[in-house]
Structure of Thymidylate kinase:
Amino acid sequence: MSGKFIVVEGLEGAGKSSVIALIETLVNAKGHKTITTREPGGTPMAEAIRECVKQNWQETVVEETELMLMYAARAQLLANVIKPALANDTWVIGDRHDLSSQAYQGGGRGISQTTLTTLRDLTLKGFSPDLTLYLDVEPATGLARARGRGELDRIELSGLAFFERTRARYQALAEQDDSIVTISAMQAMPDVHQQVKEVVEQFLQ
Ligand code: TMP
């Protein structure tokens, strides 16, 4: 027996944290052990990469540097946390995974599909989530919510057009992939949670 990997994706301010808590409750209620992860991050080295990638540097952060740091953090998390947990019959609920790189670095920054595919194949070797919930929010709304939580980091300061491109890539990829379910995060939170509950309970059957 092995665990399942469920990922929650979306722009800043989409409400990922409360949805992750809800999913954990639902999965636990079925008697499964769970852990939660976040990307970039989730191991000591990957958390250091997270700090590095979010920081406002006094130099240009090259897009390829940002991309490779995301994958370096993902490689650490996959080998040291996600795969061992799944092998130990533990379900993993992930705050972001590979789809974030496809959307932010691919859509937002404009990195080519060839480069993305090369790094993904190198890092993941065919590994992918069992279910992804994509919480779709308008960038202006999401960023206003994120701003309400405090100072914006380097990526959050990338501008509205960057987040519009990121959202468009998320939407396009979600449409092509049956393992990604889109839920509108423009609804009131109780409605978002009701939809999440329906999707996860169906998956748990
Ligand atoms: P968050 O988890 O608090 O939203 O912060 C992670 C930030 O990193 C967020 O701005 C999205 C960004 N990110 C990418 O650009 N690419 C990635 O592959 C991942 C995992 C995150």
